[in-house]
Every structure is written in C-alpha cells, then in structure tokens.
Specification:
Helix content is 23%, strand content 32%. The chain has 175 residues and is an alpha/beta fold. The protein has one domain: Dihydrofolate Reductase, subunit A (3-Layer(aba) Sandwich). The mean pLDDT is 91.
Length: 175
Amino acid sequence: MRKVTFGGASSLDNFIARTDDSVDWILWTKEVGEIMQTYWKTIDTVLMGRRTYEVASKSSKGGGGYPGIKTYVFSRTIKKKSSKKLTFVSEDAASFVRRLKEEDGKDICLMGGGVLAKSLFEAGLIDEVGLNIHPVLLGSGIPLFYEMPHQIDLELVKCQQLLNGCLVVTYSTKK
C-alpha cells in the first residue's frame, strides 16, 4: 500500500505562510535542496487543496503541477478541466485518497493544505508527517494544523538539525 506523507516548511509557531500567503521567511539552502531531491524520488503523486493550488499556480510557470508527478487538486468550486498534469477532484477527499493508496505506484505527498490534511487525518489516511521547522515565530499566518476532534499519536522516525538552524523531522502516525 502506498504511503501518504503530509508536511512542508513551517514556523516554530505552526504557520506555513504569512496571512498574505508569502513565505519569504523560509530558509532555502543547498542542504534542504538535497533532502527534497531525495524525497521527490520516492513519490509520483501530489495532493493539494484549492487554496494551496491557487497559491502554487500563481508562483509557478507550470500552473501548479510538477513535472513527472500526477497532481490532484481537491475543490468543489474550481471549474477548470483536468489536464495531463492536473486532475481536479470534487468528490470526497477521504474516499478518493483511500482508493488512490490501493493503486500501484510510489508514495503520495500531501502538499500544504491544512484543511485538506485535517480531513485525511480524521479518516486515518496520513501515514507520515514530515516538517522542516524554521527558527522563526511568525505570530500569525496560515496554520499547518487545524483543530481536530481527536488526538493523533505520532512516533519519531528521524530528526536532523540543519546548518541554518532548521530541524527536519519525520514522524509516522500510530494506527
């Protein structure tokens, strides 16, 4: 069965972007690039919610898709046609991801999208949480995690301190 990993860069106070969607606080380094290059080899699918898609499509020439990666955007309001790179999904995300995990392929990355992640955590479909925690307190912004009706227990898989002061942590979800 394919593994679903949720995560990305976050501030120490749980934000993935400022309130205006900017991520100018992210400390990108060659060291992070190498970690990400290794990670991208393990996946062939990206999941994102509407808001993450809209931000990504504004900041990329590819319209929010990733080369060689199948991208699914979950939205009930976007009325664009799907393409080779992007598939828009309006059905229940948990049901769709449950089926996707059963298909052959590499692992699946849930990109950004705390709202989408909340529904997948509640359905027990997220297997791993990977974070690049930055040494900054933004004070406000777009949260990585939203309130959930129950606790999600995690087990530390890996913790790596980077030269720039960031911590890259990986947790598996206890099932």
